[in-house]
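I am still getting used to backbone structure tokens and would like to learn alongside you. To get us started, please write out a protein record for me. Start from the sequence, derive the backbone structure tokens from it, and show both lines together. Once you have written the record down, we can walk along the chain together:
***
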Amino acid sequence: MTDILTELCESEILAQKAKQVPEWFARPYQLVSLLEMEQFYAAFFISKLLFFHEIFTESIKGESPNQPISQATRELMEKRLVALSEECKKAGLENSVSHLMSLRISVAMGEYNYGSLKYVGEEVERVISLELIKSSFFWIPKDDADYFQKDDLFGVKEKFPEANKEIVEAGNCYATGSYTACVFHLMRAVEVGSRKLVSALNAGKYLDPPNRPVELCTWDDLLKALDKGVADKAVGTRNDAAKKATYEFYHHAVAQFRNFKDAWRNNVSHKRETYKQGKAKDIMDNTRQFMQHLASRLGEKKRAK
């Protein structure tokens, strides 16, 4: 019988090459580069190559097709099956892992002879290939990837953590081409900011009924109260620079909020418009300006001055 150890040494050279490839680290919805994809699949297919190298070389060593495979060959096959199943786990190929583990048990029990080895290899390749076809990856262009899973896209996370959650989702939607959904999340972020404006202007008393929970108010309700709150801030601005600056801050913020309502919020909420990339980007820029303007003086838990 051909020396199994010689074949093992040849395979170990390939194994060392596989070890030099970085470990697969991706989790669901994590952004990875094309280089990382290539590096991972290089490792996966090198391991796959190791396995097929073993079984095909063993099947042509001149052994009788009906002869059961030797103990040394069984151990070698089990070792490669385990290595291959570990690579399949990294790729999330659950069916392949299950198939490989079942095959390992059959090999350990001596159910195969040399003639059947090549059919085992063909079956393994078929199972893995079919499952790989079902493994999908979403490619995001570089410029759009800058918006994906960004923890503080607008730089307002510290001041507006709840609004920031919507901003993160808006960025994810933009990066994946879901532009109408992006606008929807941006409007939710704007609403968080508008509620803080009501509180900061002490405009809750102008709601109908007074001090009604802002969460139950329409944008029209909020705007009516905000206009009166801004009017209060106008008192005494003629001779007081600080009061004038405060008034201008709130006047600008409420004007921006009104523009969101009239231009975009009603349209996206009532299915009057479907947004494309360019328009979504414009709305994102406007929302960024609005939230950064608010964050310059206000915050979700910060008292207004």
